[in-house]
Specification:
It contains three helices and 15 strands. The protein has 289 residues and is α/β, with parallel strands linked by helices. The protein has a five-stranded parallel sheet, with helices on one face. A four-stranded parallel sheet has the order 3-2-1-7, with helices on one face. The two termini are 19 Å apart.
């Protein structure tokens, strides 16, 4: 049977491996030491976070929309799940279908390149461990929540105050006694604002929406978008006053990092991968998804 490579062991990767392995020989490369992708939560403050997961996160989708057709959640589990419950479910899925048998953990893919010399397209997959394998097909399942994106605001690169990206946020306990500013008012920004407020942390928000957000916790100050960082102060649009915060958390989204996809794949990866047939298949080489 043919060989299929899938990267990485998040939700998309383990589901792809589950169905491919019924027909093909499969290798699933996973950069970390476990499955789960963005659902991995790191409690140890001495370990660098590599996912956006934080202590109090619950899914903002009901479990009915997150259930695989061949494995149900426990009936008594809540509609909106904790990250621990989702991880338990993903581990149960992997155990049921023996996904771990095909996973190469702690393996970072450094290059995926087509090989057309033999007539049939093969895929050369190189890793940071200096290994190289050839596959008949490849599925890229790396997700979109890895490479953080900060806004291009004058002075941010020399700002002397403390700031982090929402991906680095872990727990409101680490911000006890602080005045925190959240920049960005989409799902992550609002979630972090509420998480901090519910735990007694003074937190306010800055965004570029034309009107104030409704339904925020009582007492939240809404600033317009930041336009300048100077020394330890931040200035907002239409306001000449400089403000100080103990921590600024940028909930400003993610960029795309598909540097391991070789130019010979004929896919542009600078913003979003393109062109893709049905947003999934490489039209030049359909054995890449």
């Amino acid at each position: 049977s043919s060989g299929i490579n899938a990267e990485y062991g998040g939700v998309a990767g383990i589901v792809a491996a589950r169905y491919f392995k019924d027909v093909f020989r499969v290798t699933l490369y996973e950069a970390s030491s476990t499955i789960g992708g963005v659902w991995q939560y790191t409690k140890d403050k001495n370990i660098t976070k590599h996912t956006p997961m934080y202590k109090n996160l619950r899914s903002n989708l009901p479990k009915q929309l997150m259930t695989f057709r061949d494995l149900q959640y426990e009936q008594d589990s809540p509609t909106f799940l904790t990250h621990e419950q989702v991880m338990d479910y993903l581990h149960s899925y992997c155990n049921k279908f023996n996904i771990s048998d095909v996973v190469s953990f702690n393996t970072h893919v450094s290059c995926v390149k087509p090989d057309t010399y033999s007539g049939d397209v093969k895929w050369i997959v190189s890793t940071a461990n200096e290994t190289q394998e050839v596959f008949d097909a490849v599925a890229v399942c790396t997700g979109r929540y890895d490479t953080i994106d900060f806004p291009q605001v004058p002075g941010l690169d020399t700002y002397s105050g403390k700031y982090i990206h929402s991906k680095e946020y872990s727990s409101p306990d680490l911000h006890e006694g602080e005045h925190v500013l959240i920049v960005g008012a989409r799902a992550s920004g609002i979630d972090l604002l509420i998480d901090l407020r519910e735990c007694g942390v003074r937190a306010d928000i800055s965004h570029r929406k034309p009107a104030p957000c409704n339904g925020l916790p009582e007492g939240v100050i809404q600033y317009k978008q930041p336009v300048l960082f100077e020394d330890d102060k931040v200035y907002f649009e239409g306001d000449d006053h400089g403000y100080k915060f103990d921590t600024i958390i940028f909930a400003t989204g993610y960029g795309t990092n598909l540097d391991f996809i070789h130019p010979d794949c004929m896919i542009q990866t600078d913003v979003i991968p393109r062109p893709l047939y049905k947003f999934a298949l490489n039209p030049k080489y359909p054995s890449m998804a």
